Amino acid sequence: MSKQMFRYLLAGTTIGGLLLGLVLFDKTPSPKSIARPNFLLVITDDQSWIHTSFAGYPAVKTPNFDRIASEGIYFRNAYTSAPTCTASRSAILTGQHFWRLGSAGQLWGEFPASLTTYQDILEKNGYKTGYTGKGWGPGKAVMGNPAGPNYSQIKKDVDPNFSTIDHVENLKQFLREKKPDQPFSFWVSPTEPHRPFLHDVGVNSGEIDMKKVTVPPFLPDVPVVRNDIADYLYEIQWFDKELGTILQVLEEQGELDNTVIVFTSDNGMAFPRAKSNNYEYGTHVPFAVRWGNGITDHQDVTDFLSLTDIAPTFLDLAGITPPAAMTGKSFRQQLLAKKSGRIDKQRNAAFSGFERHIKDARLEDRGYPSRAIHTDKYLYIQNLAPERWPAGMPPKLLDIDDGSPSKNIIKQLDKYEAFWKLAADKRPAVELYAIDHDPGQLNNLAGNPEYKSLQAALEQQLLEQMQQTGDPWTTGNGEIFNTYIYYAKDSQ
C-alpha cells in the first residue's frame, strides 16, 4: 500500500460503534485459592527496558527488580502506548490506547470524570486504593488523581534532585488504614529516573562502573554523554534500593505472596531520540511480575504486552469482567501458563503512538503525530505530518527534555551534526527498521524492494489496529489533538 493510499484511508475510514467495544478477554474464573489478590504497580519515570541488571546491562545493579523478575515472570516485549508520561499513565489506568482518551492522552491534559479507571472499579468492588509519588499526570484531574487517594505526605530529607517523598513510609500508612483482610491496589510511582539528574553523581558516587556504561548508537560516545547516562543509571539504582525496602514491608506484613507486583516504567529514557519517540529506547519498557500465590516458578516470556493490558489483567485476576471500552487484553494466561517463550502466538506485536509533549514545541501547539507497530524483528513507523519537526522547532527542540547535557552537545553542529539530524531533523513519512540487526534504528529500510511485502503487511496491521481502536486519524479527525488545552504554562 502506498503512503498516499494510507493517508487516504486515515482521512476517510469510518468505525462502527460495535468495533470500538470489540475486545477479547480471558473469561476463565480465578481459582478460589488465588481470589482477590492485592495489586502493587511500581512505575518508574522514564526508564528504557534495557537498563536493569536482569536485562543484562552491565553498568547498573538492580537486585530488587531482579528479585521480582527471577521469582516471577520477566516479559521481554512490553511497550508503552505513548512515550510521554501523562498519555502513558492515562492508558495504564483506563486500559485504552491514549488516542482514545481525548485531552487525557497528552501531557498537561485533562482527565475527565467520564473516564473510568481500573482503580475506580476495584474500589467499587471492595478494594482500598491509593498511590504514593507521581501517580497520574502531570495535568488537570477533574475528580482527584485517577490513581486514587494520595499517600505522599511523609517526606524524607534528601537532595532535591531525587524524590523527597518517602514511598516506604507512605505505603506503611496506607496499609495501616485499610481494613483487616481488605484487598488493596496501590501505585508506587517515584520520579526516578526523570530529569533533572544530580550532575556527575554517577561517576562521583563510585557506584557506576564507567567502563561498563554503553552509549546508544544514536548518541555520540563522548565523556559528557557517558556521564549523563551514568547519572541516569544512578537514579535507577537509587530507587531500586527503596524497592527492596518496599518488598520487605510487604513480607513483614504477610502481604507479599498474595500481592501481584508489576514493575514497569511509563516510557523510555529522557535522552534525544528516546523519550517522545516511537523508537525502541522511547517505547520499550522494563516489565516483570511477581505473585507468590499464582506464579510458582520463574519464566521468561516473549509475548508482546502493552501497558494498556495492566488494567484488564488486574480486573481479571480480581474476578471482575473488564469493561468493553478497554482495548487492552488480560495477560492472566501468561501469568499462569508455567512456561517460557511465546505463550500466545497472537501476541506477536505491540502498538504505540505520539502526538504532543511540550507546549509551544511547534507553531500553534501542533504535535508530531505518528503511529508504530513493534514486532520481534521489526519496527514500522508512520509519521502522519512529516513536514513538522519531530523534536520541536530548532534551536530549542522542546520535546527533548531541557537540562540534558546530551541534548546540549548534539546542538554543537560543527562536531555532532549527524547526531542532531537523528534526533531533530525532519523524517520521512514511513520508517522501517530491522531492530535485531539495527538496535539504534539508524538504517531506514522503507522503500527497499527487498522489504516491500513486509512493509505492506506491517502497514496493514497498523492500520487495522488504529481502525479497531477508534484512532481519530482513521476518521478524518486527527487534528483534534492540536486543540486540547495545556493546563500548565511551563509544561515539562
Give the SSE map.
Elements: H1 3-12, H2 17-20, E1 38-44, H3 63-70, E2 73-79, H4 85-94, E3 109-111, H5 118-124, E4 128-133, E5 139-141, H6 167-177, E6 184-189, H7 201-205, H8 223-252, E7 259-265, H9 280-283, E8 284-285, E9 288-290, E10 299-306, H10 310-317, H11 332-336, E11 350-354, E12 370-374, E13 378-383, H12 405-410, H13 413-424, E14 430-434, H14 452-468
Parallel strand pairs: 1-6, 1-7, 2-10, 3-5, 4-6
Antiparallel strand pairs: 2-8, 2-9, 7-9, 11-12, 12-13, 13-14
Helix pairs in contact: 5-10, 6-8
Characterization of the model:
This protein is an alpha/beta fold and 492 residues long. It has 2 domains: 3-15 and 351-483, Arylsulfatase, C-terminal domain (2-Layer Sandwich), CATH 3.30.1120; 24-341, 3-Layer(aba) Sandwich (Alkaline Phosphatase, subunit A). The chain is 28% helix and 15% strand. The protein has 14 helices and 14 strands. It has helices at residues 3-12, 17-20, 63-70, 85-94, 118-124, 167-177, 201-205, 223-252, 280-283, 310-317, 332-336, 405-410, 413-424, 452-468; strands spanning 38-44, 73-79, 109-111, 128-133, 139-141, 184-189, 259-265, 284-285, 288-290, 299-306, 350-354, 370-374, 378-383, 430-434. The strands form 3 sheets. Strands 1, 2, 4, 6, 7, 8, 9 and 10 form an 8-stranded mixed sheet that branches. A 4-stranded antiparallel sheet has the order 11-12-13-14, with helices on one face. Strand 12 (370-374) and strand 13 (378-383) form a beta hairpin. Helix 5 packs parallel to helix 10 (310-317) and helix 6 (167-177) packs parallel to helix 8 (223-252). It starts with a helix and ends in a 24-residue tail after the last helix. Residues 1-5 and 11-34 have low confidence and may be disordered.
